[in-house]
Amino acid sequence: MFDYRGTWMLDNGMQKMWLAACVAGLLMWACGVGRADWPGFRGPRGDGHVVEDGAAVPLRWGEGQNVAWKTEIPHRGWSSPVVAAGKVWLTTATLEGHDFFVVAVDAASGRVIHNERLFHSDNPEPLGNPINCYASPTPVVEAGRVYVHFGSYGTACLDTTDYRTIWRREDIPCRHYRGPGSSPVLFEDQLILTMDGVDVQYVIALDKRTGETVWKTDRTADWDDLGADGLPFSEGDLRKAYSTPLIVEVGGGPLMITAGAKAAYGYNPRTGKELWKVNHTAFSGAAMPVFGHAMAFIVTGFGRTELWAVRVDGQGDVTDTHVVWRARKAVPRTPSPLLAGELLFMVADNGVLACLEARTGDEVWSQRLRGDFAASPIHADGRIYLCDQAGTTTVIRAARTFEVLAENKLESGFMASPAVADGALFLRTRTHLYRIEATR
What's this model's pTM, rounded to 2 decimal places? Predict the structure, then answer.
């Protein structure tokens, strides 16, 4: 809150400037600031939907078609691109995990305009996991600030104009064991991090202005029985998870939905208070929840991989009372599901694509796509874009009938999920960042 008494002591010219700034701010707020941007993992609402008005997202492309530019990104990173104010932000890290970088690319030209090492580790823990790397968490960006996160290796806030580091934290512990994966999310004045490791499991909120801890909430899963259904995983695997939280409004207040090992939770993101929990037996889940029809759609993870539809109006342990339906067929472990109206779409890691009735879980259709998948799909113009690990993006119609609209091939494969801004697709392959834009 500002002190209006002090403000009106300004001279007349300054008063006019202040009033103009306030009016501009109100107009920007009313019109939806940055709605043409892609500020974090899975976009403006965290659900994979492109919400630009009239955005003509390209349908077809290739190495010689509709590529506005192609820029090599150094080292290795699976973090998805985020876009704001004409800049694309990514993270990357050396293969061995000793050095961690933030990269900014000019959205119009593809020129790398900032590449800075933020953190160093003398003894990073070996990944032991081909699906992950040391720069998997996606940044989150807002007006004037970008927040980058490498799990326990470091978290930082940078000014997006002059690139100076505003604050950094290297004291948020978690043994990731197979690399970090959960992306940060912004809520009001907080940056929220998920730290589900083999040793500790918690969610923590930082003051986004200073980096200081606001609250910290430990997971309350029951670790007494860690049974892995006979799968060849260590006990450490059974405690960790990689999912990114989703914050929605329910009943006039905020709710943060987050999937951990052995349980999924609903929290009050302002305080970190646990509101409800559903228990399961899975672990290492990476898919981000989606929300609709008064239900959270949550992927449990490895082990007993299921998709649960959970009513979000409960209190305490709601495992026996609020799980509306469960599905096991074609459920992904890594890509997040996508809700489009009454239909829920999901692509499993092995390429089995399914369309379900969101309210009931009944299968509408299922098909097998070629390839393996790690990237989460996006929705634009009534289409769903699915990027596989071999570099093919299959575009289907978001409908009750399976219809492939296009198949587009790039030279390298996708681990990162797509971003959309100003009608252009920003696609990060294992080696390059592309701007895909229809020829006008």
Answer: 0.90
